[in-house]
Amino acid sequence: MNDYPPEFLQAINQFNCGEYYACHDTLEALWMEAMEPERTLYQGLLQIAVAGYHLGNDNQRGAVLLLGEGLSRLRRCPELPADWDFRELIQQGQALLTTLQAQRPVGFNLKLLTL
User: Fold this and answer.
1) What is the predicted pLDDT for the residue at 107?
2) Would the pLDDT of 24 be above 60?
3) Which listed residue, of 25, 44, 101, 112, carries a Cα 20 to 30 Å from 92's Cα?
4) pLDDT at 113 exceeding the cut of 60
5) What is the pLDDT of residues 34-93, one digit of tens each?
6) Is the Cβ–Cβ distance between 86 and 76 less than 8 Å?
7) In the predicted structure, residue 11 carries a pLDDT above the cut 90
8) Which of 115, 114, 74, 78 is nearest to 94 (CA)?
9) CA 19/CA 47 separation, integer angstroms
């Protein structure tokens, strides 16, 4: 985790506090400057944050699209930070995606990690 810029930790905190749009902005700035493998990681997390934003605004279709894209990117990441349990995030995200695709009401309750 020490290899990541402070803005990355800020984005995690924003995500965990439900500040999905702010998280998007923070991650987007990092993503635009990043090289692989961080670029794919940032984009995947950014898309999951936007899914949370869409769900909070009752845009279930947008949430489904962005959550699916974000999870797909995380699965393709060649290297994920070892300090995190990304398998858990991906499993929880997939369960949420399945619920959303079935058009059942659900809250967005994913957490990236505890700081």
Assistant:
1) 66
2) yes
3) 25
4) no
5) 998 889 999 999 999 999 999 999 899 999 999 999 999 999 986 677 777 778 888 889
6) no
7) yes
8) 74
9) 14
Measured CA to CA, the distance from residue 56 to residue 52 in angstroms comes to 6
The count of other CB atoms within 10 Å of the CB of residue 36 is 10
SS3 of the chain:
CCCCCHHHHHHHHHHHCCCHHHHHHHHHHHHHHCCCCHHHHHHHHHHHHHHHHHHHCCCHHHHHHHHHHHHHHHHHCCCCCCCCCHHHHHHHHHHHHHHHHCCCCCCCCCCCCCC
Domains located in the chain, CATH noted: 6-101 (1.10.3450.10)
Residue with tokens 């974000």: 70
Q: What pLDDT is attached to residue 21? A: 96
Residues 38, 12, 22, 98, CA torsion sign? positive
Residues 6+ apart with CB under 8 A from 88: none
Residue bearing tokens 């991906």: 90
